[in-house]
Amino acid sequence: MPSSPSFVAMSLRGDDGGGEAGYAIATGFKNAMSAFSFVFRHFIAWGVVFAIAVSILSSFDFLPGFLVSVFILAMLGAWLLQMARVIVHVRRIRLLHPGSGPLPLAIRQQRTIDLPVGAEMAFGMLEAAVRELPRARVTESARDSLQLFATVPRRIRDQGEHHIPNPRHRLAQDHVSAQVVGDDEASSIRLLCEPATDPWMDLLFVDDGANIENADAIARALNRRVRESRRQEREEMREVRATRELALARLNLLNAQVEPHFLYNTLASAQLLTRSAPAKADEMLGNLITYLRRSLPQEGNFVAPLAREVERARSYLEIMKVRMGERLNIEIDVPLDLEGIRLPAMMLQTLVENAIRHGLEPREAGGTVWINARGGNATGKVTICVADDGEGLREDSSGTGVGLRNITERLALTYGDTASLRVTANIPRGIVASIEIPREIPTEDV
Q1: What is the H or E stretch that residue 283 is in?
Q2: What is the pLDDT of residue 68?
Q3: pTM of the entire structure?
Q4: The pLDDT of residue 365 is above 70
Q5: In what order do the strands lie in the sheet containing 109-115?
Q6: CATH of 109-233, one of 3.30.70.580, 3.40.630.10, 3.80.10.10, 3.30.530.20
């Protein structure tokens, strides 16, 4: 019984520290009895065969007496030779399993191997492990039913000019049959390694430990492949973590690329307005405070709600409106249900700054900046547009600047290929910059 060793160990362990020695003695005695029983069974089986053969030969009165004696001596020699093989088998099993556990003397070995991988992956590992056995030949491999059958010829020593047994003979080959059960998370392999002979022949012949070697080799190969799989997963996780940290560092760098001249010019304008128009100076400084508060990067957070980004862009445009006067008009249309949409910080600000710097400031008459957001289209994404009616597409504003390149890179780092930036001409004049992003950003990606 499988529970016997544990029961013996529990009953012999005491406070005097002799439990381990008692367990070893009990296990050794049990193994000796098992070995004696194994040898005795084969001795009796061959004795029965010998007795039957002698009785049959004795009934043949026409056979010469010396010929009967020769047959009897030959049968007796075969009996003794087989007993020697049985004893060698037991000895070899002891060498293969030198521990203090029970000896697996049975010729047919059945194992249940639990693997922390899905059933399909376990079947792939099993098939590779069986093919790695020396001389193994997979005869059937049914991936749909997760079953596998293989034939393994036994190792044959080179005996020079002497006769070498045919490896395809049933006495010289073994079978491996296995079935995988489980789900996508964990699985078990039911493995059976047995001789190619019929079960009743187990009383007469031994396999010299071949099937135990096959079962142990498959178990070791599976264990090695699981370790390799886990090591590869850890390496992939380290690579993903390193890539993510690099991406966050690059996003932080991109987020910090804010035009410093805007701050200098705004402070200079506020200083002048304190003498001529204190109210406008106060309004400009208030918008500057709001802009700076929304522009400070937050550690570990490189995305922000659309409402926060719109508030920063509005503060920036209000500051520019004080500086540009009637030359600048502002129109913002962002539905309430889209204000919670998150997007990379400073991205909307970059588009607004481009609209002012390259579109409206060079134009003497100025113009209008539109900010709008729309969602619920056929792709289930959100489209955020910044448009102007300024100078339009020119060679120095064709979408190849640092700001637009940063936006394209940040979209790729944050969303992969599920987001895009498009810069097109506005009608009748100006530029429309459109960002299309998914409604949600997975937490691990930000």
Answers
A1: helix 278-295
A2: 75
A3: 0.54
A4: yes
A5: 109-115, 187-195, 173-182, 147-153, 137-142
A6: 3.30.530.20
Q: Which CATH architecture has domain 261-445?
A: 2-Layer Sandwich (3.30)
Which stretches of 334-408 are assigned E, i.e. beta strand?
Answer: 342-344, 367-374, 381-388
Instruction: Judge whether residue 159 has pLDDT over 90.
Output: no
Tell the burial category of 54 from Cβ atoms under 10 Å away from its Cβ (0-12, 13-18, 19+).
middle
Smallest CA-to-CA distance from 39 within 213, 174, 206 is with 206
Domain boundaries, the chain: 4-96, 109-233, 261-445
Q: Which token pair is 435?
A: 């960002």
- Cα maximum dimension of the chain: 144
* pLDDT attached to residue 271: 80
C-alpha span between 204 and 306 (Å, rounded):
82
Token pair for residue 269? Answer: 């304008």
Which strands sit side by side in the sheet containing 431-438, from one edge to the other? 328-333, 367-374, 381-388, 431-438, 420-425
Mean per-residue pLDDT for 240-267? 68
- How far apart, in whole angstroms, are the C-alpha atoms of residue 313 and residue 350? 9
Q: State yes or no: cis peptide before 102, omega within 30 of 0.
A: no
**Cβ 193 vs Cβ 176: under 8 Å:** yes
The burial class, CB within 10 Å (0-12 / 13-18 / 19+), for 85 is: middle
- The predicted-structure confidence for 76-113, as pLDDT tens digits, reads as follows 888 888 888 888 888 888 888 777 677 888 889 899 99
Both tokens of residue 22? 């008692």
- Distance, CA of 174 to CA of 170 (rounded, Å): 8
pLDDT over 70, % of the chain: 82
User: What is the length of the chain?
Assistant: 446
Residue linked to tokens 């489209």: 383
Contact (Cβ atoms closer than 8 angstroms) between residue 29 and residue 23: no
Q: Name the 3-class secondary structure at 214.
A: helix
**β-strand 420-425 against 431-438: which pairing, if any?**
antiparallel
